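Appendix C: a fully annotated inverse folding record. The material below is reproduced so that readers can follow the format used throughout the book. The structure is listed first as tokens, followed by the designed sequence.
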């Protein structure tokens, strides 16, 4: 499907930048337009791919291009005040060629966390196409203010978008990595997972048309009804040069070094079902219990002779049993790449312990901050006032 992507704040801008790069590399054609909005001039300058004229600096009167310093109430205020400047950039998007908006933001900071829900609300009021959010949760080690920001932004963002796709930095940061190095890998993971999903149905010239193609309307229907979504993904390398069915499997081939294991249809089906299980039960973009998900979409992608209808049907059935949902859609997305992958969009998930923990920590942080503020007012009063109250202020 074709998206108009708007990155709000630093993380949002960087992720949209990476989506443009992914689009070029994979010829997926999912980013019809890309815009970055920020209160920090330096962050906008640091982007690589988003065209200069689509980089919008807001809040200059208030913060002079220096960011809002993790104050998401200020982020929201500034977004509201300068929404016309953002709209000017949005005006350049040929919305008749776009299936949906995707507003991307890190939810722990100030600009994106506060501004993205404001923009989503504004877009929904003006346009009839769906407005989705891609919200990035901060790592648990980032501290109280980031957690509090994210918890408050989450509540607001979910309410203002047609569906909130969530990516949890916490489950993806590997130990020992530098923050920057870590983010570039994490961002790669984000664009790969959501890229395969949104790329389905977006057949480019010269590409094969799928036997049971995933259409953008199926993505939209899976996301309709609102709520929170998560994405699972699993892939396996295959050998493009091998004859049909000659799959070099990393996981089940056993030989490791390759060799044509002469797969037949049954093996292809089994491989697909095992990929579907791995995708659903492995690491999700937002960890949660998949039981109770309201809707799901299964996209199988890879060379067409490694995909089959039976595999998709089995995968779909299995997902129905696991989620208890009656709305599990599925289809394929043929791509001539040496990889078969299963991508699963689980929409309307509600059993998410990670969010409950985030809210608990946020409430604790909020209480602590109030205590500290009250205490510090008393302490300052003690410090300034001389003990015998002999001194008088000037005025
Ligand atoms: N996945 C990912 N997360 C990021 C990246 N940069 C920052 N984050 C996360 O996003 C949160 C918000 O950070 P920023 O996007 O830098 O904040 P901002 O919206 O620009 O707001 P201010 O800097 O407060 O004005 C952080 O707490 C991190 O969890 C990134 O490149 N990738």
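Designed amino acids, in order:
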């Amino acid at each position: 499907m074709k998206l108009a992507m708007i990155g709000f704040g630093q993380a949002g801008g960087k992720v949209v930048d990476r989506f443009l790069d992914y689009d070029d590399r994979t010829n997926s054609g999912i980013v019809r337009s890309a815009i970055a909005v920020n209160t920090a001039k330096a962050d906008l300058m640091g982007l690589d791919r988003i065209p200069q004229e689509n980089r919008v600096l807001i809040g200059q009167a208030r913060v002079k291009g220096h960011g809002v310093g993790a104050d998401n109430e200020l982020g929201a205020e500034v977004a509201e005040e300068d929404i016309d400047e953002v709209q000017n950039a949005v005006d350049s998007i040929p919305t008749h060629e776009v299936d949906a908006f995707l507003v991307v933001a890190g939810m722990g900071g100030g600009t994106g966390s506060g501004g993205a829900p404001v923009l989503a609300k504004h877009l929904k009021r003006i346009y009839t196409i769906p407005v989705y959010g891609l919200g990035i949760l901060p790592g648990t080690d980032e501290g109280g203010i980031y957690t509090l920001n994210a918890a408050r932004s989450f509540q607001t963002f979910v309410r203002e978008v047609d569906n909130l796709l969530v990516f949890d930095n916490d489950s993806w940061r590997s130990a020992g990595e530098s923050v920057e190095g870590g983010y570039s890998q994490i961002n790669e993971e984000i664009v790969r997972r959501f890229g395969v999903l949104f790329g389905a149905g977006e057949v480019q010239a010269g590409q094969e048309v799928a036997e049971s193609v995933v259409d953008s309307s199926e993505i939209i229907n899976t996301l309709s009804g609102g709520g929170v979504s998560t994405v699972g993904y699993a892939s396996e390398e295959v050998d493009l040069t091998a004859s049909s069915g000659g799959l070099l499997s990393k996981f089940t081939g056993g030989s490791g070094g390759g060799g044509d294991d002469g797969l037949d249809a049954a093996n292809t089906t089994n491989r697909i079902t095992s990929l579907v299980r791995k995708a659903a039960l492995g690491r999700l973009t937002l960890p949660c219990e998949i039981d109770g998900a309201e809707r799901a979409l299964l996209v199988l992608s890879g060379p067409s002779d490694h995909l089959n209808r039976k595999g998709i049907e089995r995968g779909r059935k299995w997902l129905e049993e696991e989620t208890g949902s009656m709305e599990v859609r599925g289809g394929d997305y043929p791509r001539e790449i040496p990889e078969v992958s299963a991508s699963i969009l689980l929409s309307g998930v509600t059993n998410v312990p990670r969010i409950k923990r985030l809210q608990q920590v946020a409430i604790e942080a909020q209480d602590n901050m109030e205590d500290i503020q009250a205490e510090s007012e008393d302490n300052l009063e003690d410090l300034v006032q001389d003990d015998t109250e002999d001194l008088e202020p000037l005025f």
